[in-house]
Amino acid sequence: MKMRMNKIIGGFFCICLLLFQLPLQTAAANAANGPSPPPEESSLFATAAVLMDADSGRVLYGKNEDAVMAMASTTKIMTCIVVLENASLDETLTVSAYAASMPKVKLYIQKGEQYTIRDLLHSLMLESHNDTAVALAEHIGRQHLPPELQDKAVTEYTAEESKQAVSAFAALMNDKAAELGCKNTWFITPNGLDATETISLSDGSTIQKEHCTTARELAGILSYCIKESPKRQEFLDITRTQNYSFSANGRSFSCVNHNAFLTMMDGALTGKTGFTNKAGYCYVGALTRDDRTFIVVLLACGWPNNKGYKWTDTRKLMQYGIDNYFYRSFSGTDVAFDESILSPLPVQNGQTVVLNATAYTDVEIVRDMPPGGQTSDTEKENGSSGNGDSQWLEGLLLRPDEKIYVRYSVKEKLTAPVERGTVVGSIDYIVDDVVYKRESVVAKESVEAIDLKWCAKQVWKRFLCIR
């Protein structure tokens, strides 16, 4: 009986030991296998998708990321930031008949009513109202119309005059997109309703353009809104509001945020949904965790009745970023350039203390961050959207298996005259053939060219030496 009991107890402890070791073995196996693979394209519902590092503009995962597609009400993130950068939140606007005529989804504003920019931006971003988008666009756009239309009351505008104001606002949206490096984005409407327009060219020909963007460029636009815009805090304050109520024109309104992602994952920061029959369900959202900010864009992510597909794809891509990408500094001990290999450069035709000697100049690294953004190994754009005035980066989000390649290039010799600070080479920090940081190698001392005065001085010194 005692022996049987010992066997039972022994077996129990063996089972406990196995159960305890199993998680450890699984964790060890995962560590040995390295980072988890990116989602299979077929596992995503979206036709086009991007996971972007908001700080660098680097695409961490892409599926048809450069396909030109409709984007529905995700358009409104650009509408919002352009309004914020061109108007005060406490400004008041008057509603035109054209704005009031917009289709659902709408706030049902009416001709002649007055609202603050603050109230309508909450209506725009929380409830995605189409009429408020046009009212906001018309208010900003009319400031760019001929003086007679600027002075005319908006309540007296014809539909054509209102459309001119909205077109002027769309031009501001397109100017901002171009400023951010977007080459395949074109805005026609401020609310994201599908639209096509005919553009007349200088040679008299015409082209058809559609309201469109790409997943990559839309991610770059949101990155600007939350990272670079002078109105980024106001943008975040509005888009993160869960509920907003206001009263105007004897009526009361209540807006509820339809961005369900805000409560789905820790660190969810902002986002915007969208849908049209052409675009399907769309979404752009951002998440920040451990000083890392990820942006997900999904275009054509299902049609009715697949409203929840966008949340599944968003979770999957965000989790992939969280699990696999971590910050690495370019100045880390395992990456930084070894300055000990720098050596003085010979300078042809340079003045020296001793006749017939070779002139040299020491070199040094300039560590300040010059503007210029990111350029590829062949000086071509890397395709990511971002501010053209952005700085070189000090580090990057990388998978553990990704490598940083440091390329050192310097001239073999110089020709006098050489001024101190002259750039003689560069040190590039490269990931996947893209230069993310460049340091300049410069001459540390000036070297004057040999001239008659120097020659005369050398002859005189030699003559005195002989005497």
CA-based gyration radius: 31 Å
Biggest sheet strand order reads 2-1-11-10-9
Tally of DSSP β-strands: 21
Instruction: Please tell me what the overall shape is.
Output: elongated
**Would you identify the regions where 5 or more consecutive residues have pLDDT less than 50?**
12-32, 371-389
Measured by DSSP, the beta-strand proportion falls in: 15-25%
Q: Can you characterise this structure?
A:
The protein has helices spanning 2-33, 76-84, 97-100, 117-127, 130-141, 147-151, 159-179, 215-227, 232-239, 309-324, 452-466; strands spanning 48-53, 59-63, 92-94, 114-116, 196-200, 206-210, 243-248, 251-256, 268-276, 280-289, 292-299, 326-329, 345-348, 359-361, 363-366, 375-376, 395-398, 405-410, 414-415, 423-431, 434-443. It has 467 residues and is an alpha+beta fold. β10 (280-289) and β11 (292-299) form a beta hairpin. The longest helix has 32 residues, at 2-33. The relative contact order is 0.13. The strands form seven sheets. Strands 2-1-11-10-9 form a five-stranded antiparallel sheet, with helices on both faces. Strands 15, 16, 18, 20 and 21 form a five-stranded antiparallel sheet that branches. The model is unreliable at 12-32 and 371-389 (pLDDT under 50).
